[in-house]
Amino acid sequence: MTKSWLRCEESISPPVYLNEKTHSFYRYEYVSKGSYTQFPVNSLILNFKMSIEEKGKERWHYKKEAIDLFATAIIKNVRLPIQDTIFLPMPTSKPRKHPEFDSRLDEVVDIITKQTGQLVGYNLDLINEEIPYHISGENRDPDQIYININFNPFQDLNPKRVILIDDVITTGAHFVACIRKINSIYPDTSVVGFFLAKTIWQS
Predict the structure, then answer these.
(1) What kind of architecture, by CATH, is found in domain 6-10+27-201?
(2) I need a labelling partner for 57 at 20 to 30 A (CA). Which of 11, 102, 131, 173 fits?
C-alpha cells in the first residue's frame, strides 16, 4: 500500500458504519452536492457512473476513461498479483441479469486481471434492485442490505484476503454488509475495500 491511497477509517469524518476492525482505502474525495466545475472529482464520478443508455454516444468515452483511471490507480500503486487474494467488484444498484446492469466495476477488475494476472471473481450480486443512495437519500441499513446480497462461494479456493472494489463509499453500509456476507462462509478471510472516492459532506 502506498500513500496515494488514504484509509477511510483514519480520515476526517469517516463513514459512519466503519470502525477499527474494518480496512478500507479511498483515492479521491467526492463532495456531496458540489458543482462539477468546482470539484473535478465530482465530474470523474459522474462519468464513472454514466448510464448505460449513453453507450455508443459521443460522451461514452468519458466513462471508459474513468474506468481505466480507477484500474490504473490500483495497478500502479499496489504490488500485484497478491497471493491467496481475490478481487471482487461490489454489487451495484441492479442485479447482473437486469437489462440496465452497469458493468463498470466488473470492467475495472477485468483490466486488473488482464494486466497483472491477479485473481478476480464476480461472486457478489444483488437479489433485488435497489434505489441508489444519491437518488433515494435514505439512510442505509447494513442488515437490510445483507439480506439482499447474494454471495456465491469460491470454487476450490479459500482466500486469505478478499479485496472489494467500489466507486464511492458514503456511509459504509454496503461495504460492511458485504464483509459480513463473505465472512459468513469464510470467517478467517480478511476483507479490504478500495474505493475510487469517499463522500465529503458539504455544509
Answers:
(1) 3-Layer(aba) Sandwich (3.40)
(2) 131
